[in-house]
C-alpha cells in the first residue's frame, strides 16, 4: 500500500490494494467449529490452487509451442533452402572461391555482426553502435529489462559492468515506474471522481450505477491508452522506420511488455536495407526512450488490471461457491428442522394410534374371548388382530399393519400386551418412518 | 495539497536521477566498448579485402551475398553446414521460445518469421505475461511463508534475537543461498556444457536471463550437434522459472526488511504492505471481501507500488 502522501486524493476513499497481489482481507470461515483445522485446510487448498494454475501455465506453454512450430517451421525450411541456393549460386558463379573459404568468411562476418559491426556498408560513414546516444539507449534497455540484444557488450569489462549496472539500475527503474504509475493512477482516479460527480448531478432518469461508470471509464481508459501509447507510436514507427503495420504493432507490444526480442529496434536502422541509411533526427532516440517509460507504466497498469480480473473472477467463483455452500447449509438446516418437526408430529400421531390400537385389541379380545396373557402374540396374529379392528379405523391406519415390526426386547419385557408406554416411541416412529 | 505537490517533486527528482544514471552508464559503456568495436571493424575490412584480392569475386556480388546471409542469420538460419540439421522450431525449441516470450526474457535468437507468427506472438504475450506473473507471485507468496516468516519467527522465539537483526541476518543468508544456488552453480554447469562459454560468460548469461533482460548474445543449446538438445532446453526452461521465483522471493524479502528497518519510509517509497497475518492469505484464495475491496479492484489504475508489473519483472 502506498503511503498516504502519494495517494492523496484516494487515500480517503479506500485502502489502495496493490495489484496482482495479496488481498489483505480475512477469508470467510464457513464452518466455524472447525477452527483448529483451518490453517491446514487452507494450506491444502492453496497448494492445490497454485498447482492447478501452474499446470495451466504449462499447458499454455505447450499450446503456444505447438502453434509456433506449426506456423514457423515451414518458413524456416524455406529460408534454409533459399540461402543454400544462394550459396551454391555464388559458388558456381565465382569458380575460384571454394566452399571452405566462403564458410570461413561467413563465420567471421556473422561474429562481426554479433558484435554490431556491419561489413556490408561503407566503413567511413557508418555510425558506431557505441556512440553516446546509442549507449544511452542500450543502458535504457538494460535497466528496463527489455534487453533488445542488437547491441550487447563484448568485452569482459563491459559485461561485468553491465551486471553491476543492472543490479542497481533495475530497482531504481522499478521505483520510477511505481511513481509514474502512481501519478497516472491518480490522474485517472481524479477523472473518475469528476465523471461520477457529473453523473451524480444529472436528473434522476439519467442515473447510472457506480459500477457501470467504473466499467465504462476503465474501457475508455484502455482505449485511450491504446491509442496514445500503441496505435500512435506504431503509426509513427511505420512512417519513420519503414516497417509494415503489423511489424510496428509487433515492435510496440514486444517492447512495452519488456520482452524485447531485438529483431526490430527503433532508431537502429541496422542491417536490413543496407544501402539506405535513415537519417534520424537528433531527438528521435530520447523521445523513443521517453515513450518507452510512459508506455511501460501504462502496460504495467493494463497487465495488472488483467491480473486483477483473474483474481476477481476467481474470487467471484469462490464467492459463488461460498454462497452455494451457505445456501446448502441453510437448506440442510431447514430440511432437518422440518424433519424433526415431522418426526415429532408423527410420534404423537403414532402414540395416539397405538393407544387406539391397544383399546381396539382389548375390545377384540374381550369379544373373541381370547386371553391376551396366555396367547403368544405372533407378529402375524398381531397384525391380524389389528387388522380386524373396526372398518373405519382400518382405512385410517393402512400403514400401521405393514410396519409393526416387533421390537424383540420391548415385547418380551411387556409380555404380549402392547404396552405402548413401555415401548419407546423412537423405535416405532423409526420403523414407521422407514416404511414411509 | 502540499503532499501531492511533494509527490510530484519526488517524482521529478527520481526521473532526473534516473536520467543521470543512464548518462553515466552510457558514458562508461561507450568508453569500454568503442575501441573494441573499431578494431573489429578494421579487421573485417581487412578480411574482405583479402578475400576479394585472392578471388574472382567482385565487391558488389560479395555484398549482395553477404546481405542475404546476414538476413537469414538474423532469423537464426545459418549457412554453415553442420547447423542445418537441427531446426529452430522443433517442439523443444518452440517451447523454449514460448517460455522466453511469456517470462518476458525475450532472447531474440529466434524470432517469428511469418506475419501470422508475429500476430500470434502479440496475443500470446498479452495473455501469457500477466498469467505468468500471477503464477509466480502466487508461488512466491507461499514460499515466503516457508522461507521467511517461519525461520524468522523461529529465530526470534528460540534465540530471542531482536527482530531487525533477525530479518537482516535471514536476508543475508537467503541472498547467499540464492546467489550460490542460482548463479554460481548453474554457471559452472553451463560453462561445462557449452564449450565456447567461459565461467564469466556463463555468470553473465545467468544474470541477464534471471533479470529477464535477455540480450540474447548467449543462448544455451544453440551449439550445433548438441547432445540431448530437447532435454537441455527444457531443463533451462525449468531453471528460468525457478530462478525467477527465487529472484522475486529475494526482492520481497528485501522489501520487507527495508520496511522493517524504516528505509522505505525514509525514501517515501511504497511499502510492502503485508502484515504477517495478512500475508497468510494467498493471491487466489481471498475470501469474499467487503464491498470496498470489490470496488477498489474494479479500478484499473490503483498505484502499482512495489508490485507493479515491471518490478515484478525483476
From TrEMBL, chain A:
Superkingdom, taxonomy of origin: Eukaryota
Chain segments annotated as transmembrane: 50-71, 129-148, 160-180, 215-237, 249-267, 287-310
Catalytic activity: Rb(+)(in) = Rb(+)(out); K(+)(in) = K(+)(out); Cs(+)(in) = Cs(+)(out)
Localization per Swiss-Prot or TrEMBL: Cell membrane
A molecular function GO annotation: mechanosensitive monoatomic ion channel activity
Main subcellular location: membrane
InterPro entries per UniProt: 2pore_dom_K_chnl, 2pore_dom_K_chnl_TREK, K_chnl_dom
An annotated GO cellular component: plasma membrane
Membrane topology: Multi-pass membrane protein
Keywords assigned by UniProt, alphabetized: Cell membrane, Disulfide bond, Ion channel, Ion transport, Membrane, Potassium, Transmembrane, Transmembrane helix, Transport
Keyword 4Fe-4S appears in the UniProt entry: no
GO terms for biological process, alphabetical: stabilization of membrane potential
Domain Potassium channel: 127-183, 227-311
Similarity-based family: Belongs to the two pore domain potassium channel (TC 1.A.1.8) family.
Descriptive protein name: Potassium channel, subfamily K, member 2b
Organism: Hucho hucho (huchen)
Automatic annotation (TrEMBL), chain B:
Biased composition (Polar residues): 305-314
Subcellular location: Endosome membrane; Late endosome membrane; Lysosome membrane
This protein's GO CC annotations: late endosome membrane; lysosomal membrane; plasma membrane
Keyword annotations from UniProtKB, A to Z: Disulfide bond, Endosome, Glycoprotein, Ion channel, Ion transport, Lysosome, Membrane, Metal-binding, Potassium, Potassium channel, Potassium transport, Transmembrane, Transmembrane helix, Transport
Potassium channel domain ranges (all copies): 84-144, 179-257
One Pfam family hit: Ion_trans_2
Principal localisation: membrane
Catalytic activity: K(+)(in) = K(+)(out)
Keyword Glycoprotein: yes
InterPro entries assigned: 2pore_dom_K_chnl, 2pore_dom_K_chnl_TASK, 2pore_dom_K_chnl_TWIK, 2pore_dom_K_chnl_TWIK2, K_chnl_dom
Gene Ontology MF: a single term: outward rectifier potassium channel activity
Record's bilayer topology term: Multi-pass membrane protein
Single GO BP term: stabilization of membrane potential
Membrane spanning residue stretches: 7-32, 122-143, 164-193, 199-219, 231-251
Glycosylated residue positions: 82
Disordered: annotated segments: 278-314
PANTHER family linked to this entry: POTASSIUM CHANNEL SUBFAMILY K MEMBER 6, POTASSIUM CHANNEL, SUBFAMILY K
Subunit structure of this chain's protein: Homodimer; disulfide-linked.
Family: Belongs to the two pore domain potassium channel (TC 1.A.1.8) family.
Protein name in the entry: Potassium channel subfamily K member
Amino acid at each position: 500500500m502506498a503511503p498516504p502522501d502519494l495517494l492523496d486524493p484516494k487515500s480517503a476513499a479506500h485502502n489502495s490494494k496493490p495489484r496482482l497481489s495479496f488481498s489483505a482481507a480475512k477469508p470467510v470461515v464457513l464452518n466455524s467449529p472447525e477452527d483448529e483445522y483451518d490453517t491446514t485446510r487452507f494450506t491444502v487448498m492453496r497448494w492445490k490452487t497454485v498447482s492447478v494454475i501452474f499446470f495451466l501455465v504449462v499447458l499454455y506453454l505447450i499450446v503456444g509451442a505447438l502453434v509456433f512450430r506449426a506456423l514457423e517451421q515451414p518458413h524456416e525450411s524455406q529460408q534454409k533452402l533459399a540461402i543454400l541456393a544462394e550459396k551454391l549460386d555464388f559458388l558456381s558463379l565465382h569458380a575460384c572461391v571454394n566452399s571452405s573459404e566462403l564458410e570461413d568468411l561467413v563465420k567471421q562476418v556473422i561474429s562481426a555482426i554479433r558484435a554490431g559491426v556491419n561489413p556490408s556498408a561503407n566503413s567511413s560513414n557508418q555510425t558506431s553502435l557505441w556512440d553516446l546516444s546509442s549507449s544511452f539507449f542500450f543502458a535504457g534497455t538494460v535497466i528496463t529489462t527489455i534487453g533488445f540484444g542488437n547491441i550487447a557488450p563484448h568485452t569482459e569489462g563491459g559485461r561485468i559492468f553491465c551486471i553491476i549496472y543492472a543490479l542497481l539500475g533495475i530497482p531504481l527503474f522499478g521505483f520510477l515506474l511505481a511513481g509514474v504509475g502512481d501519478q497516472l493512477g491518480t490522474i485517472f482516479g481524479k477523472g473518475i471522481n469528476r465523471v461520477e460527480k457529473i453523473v451524480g448531478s444529472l436528473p434522476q432518469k439519467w442515473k447510472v450505477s457506480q459500477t457501470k461508470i467504473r466499467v465504462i471509464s476503465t474501457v475508455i481508459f484502455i482505449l485511450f491508452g491504446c491509442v496514445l501509447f500503441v496505435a500512435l507510436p506504431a503509426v509513427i514507427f511505420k512512417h519513420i522506420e519503414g516497417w509494415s503495420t503489423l511489424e510496428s504493432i509487433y515492435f510496440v507490444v514486444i517492447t512495452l511488455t519488456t520482452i524485447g526480442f531485438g529483431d526490430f529496434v527503433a532508431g537502429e536502422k541496422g542491417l536490413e536495407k543496407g544501402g539506405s541509411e535513415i537519417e534520424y533526427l537528433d531527438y528521435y532516440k530520447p523521445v523513443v526512450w521517453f515513450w518507452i517509460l510512459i508506455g511501460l507504466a501504462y502496460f504495467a497498469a493494463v497487465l495488472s488490471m488483467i491480473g486483477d480480473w483473474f483474481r476477481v473472477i476467481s474470487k467471484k467463483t469462490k464467492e459463488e461457491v461460498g454462497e452455494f455452500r451457505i445456501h446448502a447449509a441453510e437448506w440442510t438446516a431447514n430440511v432437518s428442522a422440518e424433519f424433526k418437526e415431522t418426526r415429532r408430529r408423527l410420534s404423537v400421531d403414532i402414540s395416539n394410534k397405538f393407544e387406539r390400537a391397544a383399546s381396539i385389541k382389548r375390545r377384540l379380545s374381550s369379544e373373541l374371548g381370547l386371553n391376551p396373557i396366555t396367547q403368544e402374540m405372533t407378529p402375524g396374529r398381531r397384525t391380524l388382530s389389528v387388522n380386524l379392528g373396526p372398518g373405519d379405523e382400518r382405512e385410517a391406519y393402512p400403514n400401521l399393519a405393514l410396519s409393526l415390526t416387533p421390537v424383540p426386547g420391548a415385547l418380551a419385557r411387556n409380555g404380549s400386551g402392547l404396552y405402548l408406554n413401555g415401548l419407546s416411541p423412537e423405535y416405532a416412529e423409526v420403523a414407521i418412518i422407514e416404511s414411509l | 495539497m502540499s503532499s501531492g505537490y511533494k509527490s510530484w517533486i519526488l517524482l521529478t527528482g527520481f526521473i532526473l536521477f534516473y536520467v543521470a544514471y543512464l548518462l553515466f552508464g552510457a558514458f562508461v559503456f561507450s568508453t569500454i566498448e568503442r575501441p573494441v568495436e573499431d578494431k573489429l571493424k578494421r579487421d573485417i575490412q581487412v578480411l574482405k579485402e583479402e578475400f576479394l584480392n585472392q578471388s574472382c569475386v567482385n565487391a558488389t556480388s560479395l555484398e549482395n551475398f553477404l546481405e542475404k546471409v546476414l538476413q537469414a542469420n538474423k532469423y537464426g538460419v545459418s549457412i554453415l553446414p553442420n547447423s542445418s540439421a537441427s531446426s529452430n522450431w522443433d517442439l523443444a525449441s518452440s517451447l523454449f521460445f514460448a517460455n522466453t516470450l511469456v517470462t518476458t526474457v525475450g532472447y531474440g535468437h529466434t524470432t517469428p518469421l511469418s506475419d501470422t507468427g508475429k500476430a500470434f506472438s502479440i496475443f500470446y504475450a498479452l495473455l501469457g505475461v500477466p498469467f505468468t506473473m500471477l503464477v509466480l507471485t502466487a508461488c512466491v507468496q507461499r514460499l515466503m511463508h516457508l522461507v521467511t516468516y517461519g525461520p524468522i519467527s523461529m529465530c526470534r522465539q528460540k534465540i530471542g534475537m531482536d527482530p531487525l537483526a533477525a530479518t537482516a541476518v535471514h536476508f543475508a543468508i537467503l541472498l547467499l543461498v540464492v546467489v550460490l544456488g542460482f548463479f554460481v552453480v548453474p554457471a559452472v554447469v553451463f560453462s561445462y556444457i557449452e564449450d565456447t562459454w567461459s565461467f564469466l560468460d556463463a555468470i553473465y548469461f545467468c544474470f541477464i536471463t534471471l533479470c529477464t533482460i535477455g540480450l540474447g548474445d548467449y543462448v544455451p543449446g544453440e551449439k550445433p550437434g548438441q547432445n540431448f538438445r530437447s532435454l537441455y532446453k527444457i531443463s533451462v526452461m525449468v531453471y528460468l522459472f525457478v530462478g525467477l521465483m527465487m529472484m522475486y522471493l529475494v526482492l520481497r524479502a528485501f522489501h520487507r526488511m527495508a520496511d522493517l528497518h524504516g528505509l522505505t519510509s525514509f525514501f517515501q517509497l511504497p511499502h510492502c504492505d503485508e502484515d504477517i497475518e495478512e500475508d497468510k492469505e494467498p493471491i487466489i484464495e481471498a475470501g469474499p471481501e467487503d464491498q470496498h475491496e470489490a470496488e477498489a479492484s474494479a479500478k484499473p489504475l490503483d498505484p502499482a507500488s512495489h508490485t507493479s508489473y515491471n518490478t515484478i519483472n525483476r
